[in-house]
Amino acid sequence: MESYHADQLAVLGHPQRLALFRLLVRRYPDAVPAGELADAIGARANTASTYLSSLRHVGLITQSREGRSLLYRLDATRSRGLMDFLFAECCRGRPDLCGPSAFPLPEGNAIMPSRKYNVLFICTGNSARSIFAESILRREGGDRFNVYSAGTRPYSELNPFAVETLRKKGYDIDALRAKNVEEFQGPDAPQFDFVFTVCDRAANEDCPAWAGQPVSAHWGMPDPVKTVGTDAEKSLAFQHAYGALRNRIQAFVALPIGTLDRISLQHAVDDIGQTNAGEPA
């Protein structure tokens, strides 16, 4: 068994193989196309394929096929086995030696306390999908949530089709603005209970860990901004994106957050991200 884990550690000792592993941890439970993984780490397709093969050989990830595409996903059970081995055998089970210091693990399987929760939605540009999510949760969640959104791109602006979609549905658009994620990473920023990425590119980025270990999930969906065609066709794409996010957020609002332990809550928000994109609302 020690030899098996030694092989896993040896594979993770390569910077780009480690980058792929970390990316698939962030995207879990998604199965991610090989081409997207290669683009995310800036590697050629055949080079990324070799790295992925190594990770798969030692049981850290799994491979599946969808049409002509190869998809890769974290093997959560075997990856957890490696972490358990490091803690039990290398650290001799001593949390004072190997427990995380900057982000201590929650004690036991504690239930999240019932209060007003801080929620952040992240996308690359903060121009459409994350703005939709911010607006929808603020309306659907009532006074249960403080809601924010941000983008990872240094500069962005609201997409006019997104703004018009919200205006037609009766949202207050005057206070909406495009924001950068750095605005929420300073010492005076809110401590978030939930952080959701709503586009694949943002989820693939290696951002710093959030203080307080918020429950996080990836609710990716197609980018309506990339739609080409007539204004009517573009407007329909934004309607679909709005409808998909509204379906997911309604499912999130319906969760009995104050009665679920952290692991159950994590599984619940992961499941929401795996639901069908839905119909326009």
From TrEMBL:
One of its GO terms (molecular function) is DNA-binding transcription factor activity. Residues 1-94 form the HTH arsR-type domain. The keyword Transcription regulation does not apply. Signal peptide: none annotated. Pfam families: HTH_20, LMWPc. GO terms for biological process: response to arsenic-containing substance. CDD domains: HTH_ARSR, LMWP_ArsC. InterPro entries: ArsR-like_HTH (IPR011991), HTH_ArsR_DNA-bd_dom (IPR001845), Ptyr_pPase (IPR023485), Ptyr_pPase_sf (IPR036196), WH-like_DNA-bd_sf (IPR036388), WH_DNA-bd_sf (IPR036390). Keywords: Arsenical resistance. This is Protein-tyrosine-phosphatase. It comes from Roseivivax halotolerans.
